[in-house]
Amino acid sequence: MPGRKKHEEPFGGRADFGEAFPGLEDAIIEHRAARPGGPFQTDRPRPTTKMSLRTRGPMMHCLNHQCSNGGYDVTAIVHEMLARQETQREGTVECGGREAEHGRAWEQCRKCGWAWDFLITLVLRK
């Protein structure tokens, strides 16, 4: 399930959150980033970011400063959750970006490799 590129429109090209998700009040996304090759379970706790899909948008931004066109768009996950009538899901997704290298074509650059553990909780409209 690939993430959206930075230059694409949020919410699957829909104008805004309400148009993209008419049955949702909000979706709360909690996520923690992990470096490539490192285990997700470590002795040192990783900070968790908590964000509102309605106010912050669907992108989890990559923390790798060398990453180009990275991050992850949760729009497809939220649509899938709604189709399956799920109100909560946790999992792991990888960044779709690449580490930019001067003089190399984007496709030839190394994949970013960062990832996020996430928990998405849907708040349905009443």
Outline the secondary-structure elements:
Blueprint: H1 17-20, E1 24-34, E2 49-52, H2 53-56, E3 59-60, E4 67-68, E5 72-73, H3 75-83, E6 88-94, E7 98-99, E8 115-124
Low-confidence stretches: 1-7
Number of helical segments with 4 or more residues: 3
Q: How many β-strand runs?
A: 8
How much beta, percentage-wise?
25-35%
Shape field: elongated
Q: Structural class from helices and strands?
A: alpha+beta
H/E topology pattern: HEEHEEEHEEE
Strand order of the largest sheet: 2-1-8-6
pLDDT averaged residue by residue: 81
| Helix residue percentage | 10-25%
Would you write up a description of this structure?
The protein is of the alpha+beta class. It has one domain. It has 3 helices and 8 strands, in the order H-E-E-H-E-E-E-H-E-E-E. It has helices at residues 17-20, 53-56, 75-83, and strands spanning 24-34, 49-52, 59-60, 67-68, 72-73, 88-94, 98-99, 115-124. Strands 2-1-8-6 form a 4-stranded antiparallel β-sheet. Strands 3-5 form a two-stranded antiparallel sheet. The chain is elongated and about 55 Å long.
Descriptive labels:
126 residues; alpha+beta; 4-stranded antiparallel beta sheet; two-stranded antiparallel ribbon; 3 helices; disordered N terminus
Task: Offer a quick outline of the entry.
With 126 residues, this protein is α+β, with helices and mostly antiparallel strands. It contains three helices and eight strands. The protein has one domain.
